[in-house]
């Protein structure tokens, strides 16, 4: 409860469920699996914000989120990569693209950089979150739009991103892609999303200790939108030479262990469905045994 302000879209609901379970099953051992735990390996130079000491002393730093999904997808991608080219560990970018969205750089089976931060708000443009903006926007909005700080943060978390860019609040990428052919605002929203994604993926590459082995897409948009994957990789073509197989991409890699890049090419590209519930259960099993 003390850190619910870090994740206002999720923590209050999770806490309510925990309280109900404790009341219903008081003798059962309860285990909490934190989405931030996978990112505990972030190096200090990646997790520390350049702020005065009093800010750092109260725990203001990058924590990162989507770690449960990233850990699961990393393992599945590693299994697929080992069947093609065996190494102890691989360098990859994992793009969790749902209503919330983030990119994580993984090397030696550890998180080395991620786009979310102190809260899930920064980084990529998302379904209803703004992603990276100038922090001065908060002060400006308070002084010029007759809003208090909580109202502004509510706007940035729940009324921004794709939702904020459409007049009707539509943040479903499927319908936005359909509308983009005829509607300027929908086209702009999609273009902004692709640009934001590619830009942050490019930035995460510097965290890898060696050449990249794979890019992995997961979650709702990542798993199901061949167009977003293709457009993003096209923007990165001079930086990461992924040879996308258009047929496998349209099929979402369902017949090829998730692989959607051309056979024999490297680095590879995968579309791997996430399973956060499985990973939570797996973490509980590990902790209890």
Number of helices: 13
Order of helices and strands: HHHHEEEHHHHHEHHHEH
Indicate the radius of gyration in whole angstroms. 20 Å
Largest sheet: 5 strands, mixed
Based on Cα principal axes, name the global outline: globular
What's the average pLDDT? 93
**Arrangement of strands in the largest sheet:** 3-2-1-4-5
| Share in β-strands | 5-15%
Note down, in words, how this protein is organized.
Helix content is about 45%, strand content about 10%. It has a five-stranded mixed beta sheet with strand order 3-2-1-4-5, sandwiched between helices. The protein is α/β, with parallel strands linked by helices.
At a glance:
The chain is built from 13 helices and five strands. With 289 residues, it is α/β, with parallel strands linked by helices. A hairpin with a 3-residue loop joins β1 (92-97) and β2 (101-107).
Provide tags for this entry.
globular, single chain, 9% strand, alpha/beta, 289 residues, 43% helix
List the helices and strands and how they pair.
Blueprint: H1 11-24, H2 44-47, H3 53-57, H4 67-82, E1 92-97, E2 101-107, E3 110-114, H5 136-144, H6 149-158, H7 161-165, H8 173-179, H9 184-204, E4 214-218, H10 219-224, H11 226-235, H12 246-250, E5 268-271, H13 276-288
Parallel strand pairs: 1-4, 4-5
Antiparallel strand pairs: 1-2, 2-3
Helix pairs in contact: 4-13, 8-9, 9-11
């Amino acid at each position: 409860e003390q850190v619910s302000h870090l994740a206002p879209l999720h923590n209050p609901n999770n806490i309510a469920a925990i309280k109900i379970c404790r009341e219903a099953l008081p003798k059962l051992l309860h285990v909490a699996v934190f989405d931030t735990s996978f990112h505990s390996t972030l190096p200090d130079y990646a997790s520390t914000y350049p702020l005065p000491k009093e800010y750092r002393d109260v725990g203001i730093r990058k924590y990162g989120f989507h770690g449960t999904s990233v850990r699961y997808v990393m393992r599945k991608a590693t299994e697929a990569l080992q069947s093609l080219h065996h190494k102890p560990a691989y360098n990859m970018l994992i793009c969790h693209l749902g209503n919330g969205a983030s990119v994580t750089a993984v090397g030696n089976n550890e998180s080395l950089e991620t786009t979310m931060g102190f809260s899930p708000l920064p980084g990529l443009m998302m379904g209803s979150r703004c992603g990276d903006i100038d922090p001065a926007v908060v002060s400006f909005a308070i002084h010029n739009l007759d809003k208090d700080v909580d109202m502004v943060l509510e706007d940035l978390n729940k009324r921004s991103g794709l939702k904020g860019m459409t007049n009707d609040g539509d943040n479903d990428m499927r319908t936005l892609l359909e509308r983009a052919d005829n509607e300027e605002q929908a086209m702009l929203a999609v273009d902004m999303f692709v640009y934001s994604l590619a830009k942050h993926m490019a930035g995460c590459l510097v965290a890898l200790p060696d050449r990249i082995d794979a890019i992995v897409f997961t979650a709702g948009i990542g798993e199901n939108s061949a167009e977003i994957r293709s457009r993003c990789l096209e923007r990165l073509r001079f930086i990461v030479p992924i040879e996308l197989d258009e047929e496998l991409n349209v099929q979402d890699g369902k017949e090829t262990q998730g692989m959607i890049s051309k056979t024999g090419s490297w680095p590879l590209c995968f579309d791997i469905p996430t399973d956060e519930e499985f990973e939570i259960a797996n973490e509980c099993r590990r902790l209890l045994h």
